[in-house]
Amino acid sequence: MSTNFRSALFVLLGLIGTSFFVSCSSSESGGGQEGDVDPEVTGIVLDQTSLTVVLGTSASLKATLQPEGVTGDITWSTSDPTVLAVADGDIQPLKVGEANVAATHGTFTTTCKVTVIEDPTSGTLDPVPEVLQGEDYYVISLDETAFATIESKVTYDLRTDDVDKNFYIWENTLLAGQPSGNNYFGLEEGWMSLVVGSVGWSGAGYNVGSGFGSIDMTPLYNNPEEYYFHVAMKSASASTVYTLIFSDGIAEAKVVMGAGPDGDGVAPYGDFERNGEWQEISIPLTHLHEQGVFYNQAVSNVNIFAFLAGGNSGDTVDVDAVFFYKKKK
C-alpha cells in the first residue's frame, strides 16, 4: 500500500469519527446548551380531583408533571369505559354513573372521580311548582316528569310496579274511569281515574308488600310539624264524601273530605271545591299524630294510603300527586 493511499485513508477515517462524535452529542443534549439536563419527574397532578359531567356534554382535565417545567408523555385511562371515554384529558360521558379517570406517567398516577348525571333540566318541570320544592319525598303516585323533577330528593319510590307495590280495589267497587284533560301539573300524563260502582261505598288503595322491604318513615315522627301529606283530587259531585285512610302498621287514621261525615260517622276535616278541576289537599302530619298514626318505626307489608268514596253510582274519583314530604320553609 502506497504512502499516499494510507494517508488518505487515515484522513477519511478521521472525518467519519468526527462526524459520529458530533451526531451523538446533539441527540443527548436535545439541541440545548452544553450541560443543560431536564430534571427528573417527581410526580403528576390533575387540576381537579372530582368532577360532575352532564350527559350529552363534555369536560376536560389537565395533567401537570412535577416539578414545574418537566415534560413527558401522559397516558389517560378510565376505570369504566361504559360510563365515559377519555383521550388526552378530554372526557366524553356515555351513560349515567361513576368512573375514575387516571393520568399516568411512568410509575406516577393520579386520578379524578367523575360522576355522569342526567341533564337536570331535561324532562322536568320548569318552573318547579312549590309543592315540588320541598325535601324528603315518599312518593306513592306521581307522573314521570314530576318524579324526574324531584328524583334526587325522593327517599322512597312507592309507586306501583305490579310486583311488590300494587294498587288494589276493594271487591270491584270501583271501575276504570276515563281521564279527561291534563293531570294536576298540567301535563298530558296519566293519573288514577275511577268511577264509583253500584254499591253505596267504594274503596281502593296502595299496598307495599313485604317483598319491597321495610319503609323507614321515622323522620315524619321526629319532626311532624315539618311534614305533610299531599294529594290532588277533582270531582264535580258535591254530595260525594271522600275518606282518606293512613296506616303505620300499628294504627289507622281517617281524614274525611266532604260536606258531612263518612259512613262511620267521622266528621269532615275539610272539603275541596267540586268544579271538575284539580284541587290540592295538604294534611299536616301533626293531624295524623292526633289520631295515633306516628310512623315511629319502620313498616312493611302495609296499605300506605287508601281512600273511600261514598255517594252515587257513577261518581268519579280522580287522584294525582300523592306523597308525603317535608315542605319548603
From TrEMBL:
Transmembrane intervals: none
Pfam families per the UniProt record, alphabetical: Big_2
Lineage summary: Bacteria, Pseudomonadati, Bacteroidota, Cytophagia, Cytophagales
Source organism of this protein record: Flammeovirga aprica JL-4
Stated name of the protein: Ig domain-containing protein
SUPFAM superfamilies recorded: Galactose-binding domain-like, Invasin/intimin cell-adhesion fragments
BIG2 domain residues: 40-115
